[in-house]
Amino acid sequence: MDSRTIKFNNADRPDFVKELRKRVNTYFKENNKSKYGNANMVIKTIFMLSLYFVPYFFIIFNLTANSWIILSFWLLMSFGMAGIGFSIMHDANHGAYSKNKNVNKYLGYLINLVGGSSVNWKIQHNVLHHTYTNIAHHDEDIDGPLMRFAYKIKRYKVHRFQRFYAWFLYGLITLSWSLKKDFIQLRRYSKKDLLKTQQITFKNAFWRLVSAKTFYISYVLVLPLIFSSQSWWLTIVFYLIMHFTCGFIISVIFQLAHVIEETTFPQPDKDGKMENNFAIHQLNTTANFAKNNLPLSWFVGGLNFQIEHHLFPNICHVHYRKISDIVKNTATEFGIPYHQNTLFGAISSHAKHLYQLGKYDFA
Fold first, then answer.
1. Range of 129's domain?
2. Where are the alpha helices (DSSP H) in the chain?
3. Plot region of 228 (φ>0 → left; ψ -120 to 50 → alpha; else → beta)
4. Mean pLDDT, residues 201-220
């Protein structure tokens, strides 16, 4: 079924959507707050960029020849890379970082600087994931040949072991993006006529992708191979460790928000109609975690408040904690689920979900 044929049920409790929007808008109006980023967002931006680029320049300029210290620089880069994705690029590509569209546009390009593609990301994340959250074969975040995240997806024998190998595969995601996945995605999105959502042709998108990948590999790998005091093979190992660490962090954070036992994986009927309206669908398929873990919440760009993000993706993440009580209370009043968990509770729930989906064809 084509994604464009899927229709959400607008007749499903429209009063909830109206009341929730009213209460959230009232919060910003009464507190005289902008829905975009603030000074804290600017400070975080500087911090995350420094966390990535300062260690990089230490490597390039041979601050030390000690291999363990050099490894620590690459590890710091992995956290900076994840932080750029969580806390800067993500908001920018949702148009939530600033009311200035150019600020959002150029900060959104930071994903290209760390090995990804802003064009592909907007399609996979903004268009497919946010619109068709947890709908198998439409939300690409839950699709993949080696993983089974929803019962609608066919189960193969290898899935019996996914609860073991999933954690390793999570670490490969950013490396895959940087080397091959973006090219495969771009061709697929062209065939599905999705590039028009970004107002770009396949030819332009392809050459922009080639240019971005060439620049990325040149500065992040070739230059360290040339200038670092480490042997070439050790530099490559450190580069792979950086990607694995970043990929693991990013993957786990996003899985804990959607792929757990508590969330649902609804499917449209034969006519493409969904049971719920869009907002209630987001509440059923999304979960928050580690609400009181302030350092984690700061680092992951408020993405542990994933419910608020999916309901209000155009609001900067620095406001999610404040509006989360409004969303929860409104959902409770209307008898709608509001999933939330601790960090370790969410990890445990994800692990159990992997086990169940790997062992059984149906719930």
1. 3-359
2. 14-30, 39-60, 67-84, 90-93, 101-108, 110-113, 118-121, 130-131, 162-170, 173-176, 182-191, 202-217, 223-227, 232-258, 278-285, 294-299, 306-311, 320-333, 343-359
3. beta
4. 97
The SS3 of residue 341 is strand
Total domains in the fold of the chain: 1
pLDDT at 210 over 90: yes
Long-range (24+ apart) CB contacts under 8 A made by 15-23 are 15/334, 16/277, 16/279, 16/280, 16/330, 16/331, 16/334, 16/336, 17/277, 17/278, 17/279, 19/330, 19/334, 20/279, 20/311, 20/326, 20/327, 20/330, 20/331, 23/326, 23/330
**What average pLDDT does range 161-170 have in this prediction?**
97
Comparing CA positions, the residue from 150, 103, 106, 125 lying closest to residue 259 is: 150
In the chain, the amino acid numbered 206 is F
